[in-house]
Amino acid sequence: MLKKTLLAAVALMTLAGSAAAEELKEFRIGILGGENEADRLRNFQCMTEKLPSVLGVEKVSLFPAADYDGVIQGLLGGTLDYAELGASGYAKIYLAKADAVEPILTTVQTDGSMGYYSIMVARKDSGITKLEDLKGKKLGFADPDSTSGFLVPSVTLPESIGAPVKEYFSETGFGGGHENLVLEVLKGTFDAGTTWGSGVGEFKDGYSSGNLRKMVDKGILNMDELNEIWKSPLIPNGPIVVRSTMNDDMKTKFKRFMMDLPKSDPACFSSIQGGDFTGYTEVNVDFYKPIIDARKATIGG
C-alpha cells in the first residue's frame, strides 16, 4: 500500500513538473474583441518579438477573441496567460472564480488620473445634442461585458434621464464591440451609442486615448461627424491581469517588463494601449471592488 502511495506521489510530481516545463514554452496573450482582428494583431506584434527573450519562452502567441467573453473564458479556463481587461470584464472573472487571475497593473492617463469615461455619441447631422433628444430613440451599447460600453451606463444613466433605460429608449442593442458600435451609430443603426475615452484633451481629437482616438488615428472616423451627448462619472482604468497559477518568476519578469515598456519602447507601449498614457501603476483587487459590487448588483456575474 505504501509503495503504491509513493508511486502515485512520484507520478503526480512528474506531471506537475511537466506542466511547469510546458508552461515556460509558450506565453499566451488574449486580446479583447471590438476592433478588427488585423489591427489587433498588428498592435500586439511587438510583444511577440520582445517577450520570448524576457520570459525565457520559445514563443509568444496572440489570441484575438471575437468578443470580450472569449478572453474572459480563456482566462477562467487557464488557456491564456495575460490580457488587458476592462474593469467589468475583470469583475466577471472575479465573481466566477476569484483566484483565476491577478490584477497587477493599470494605465495612468496623461493628466495623472487612473480612470476614463463612458462617452455617448450621436451623429452630428441627427440634430441630437442632449439626452432629452434621445427619448424614444434607439441606444446602442458596445458589449455586454464592457465597463464603459454597458455596465456603467446601465448603472448611471437612469439618474441622468430620470427613468429606467428600457423605459426611456425605444430599443437597446449591442454593436459588437466599441469600434463597430461607433460605425453602427454612423450608419444609423442606433441613434446614439456608448463607447470610451480618456476625457483628457479635446473631444474633437477623440481625446488623448480611447476607442474614438484609435479610430481617428486609423483614419476611419472623422470627429466632425459626431456629437458628445453624455459622459459618465470616472471609471477605474481596466487591469492588466496574469494567470494566478503562473510561476512567480515569470510573473515578476513580466511585470517588470511592462512597467519599463513606456521608456524602453514607447512605440510598442503606445501601440498596445491605443493612445497617450504616461505609463503603468500597480493595482490589486481592492481597486476594482466598486465595479465588482456594481456588476454583482446589476448583472449578477
Automatic annotation (TrEMBL):
SUPFAM superfamilies, A to Z: Periplasmic binding protein-like II
GO cellular component assignments: ATP-binding cassette (ABC) transporter complex
Gene Ontology BP annotations: organic phosphonate transport; transmembrane transport
Gene3D superfamilies named among the record's database cross-references: Periplasmic binding protein-like II
Keywords: Signal
Pfam families: Phosphonate-bd
Origin: domain of life: Bacteria
Signal peptide coordinates: 1-21
InterPro entries: PhnD, Phosphnate-bd
Similarity section: Belongs to the phosphate/phosphite/phosphonate binding protein family.
Protein name per its UniProtKB record: Phosphonate ABC transporter substrate-binding protein
Organism whose genome encodes this protein: Ferirhizobium litorale
Gene symbol of the encoding locus: phnD
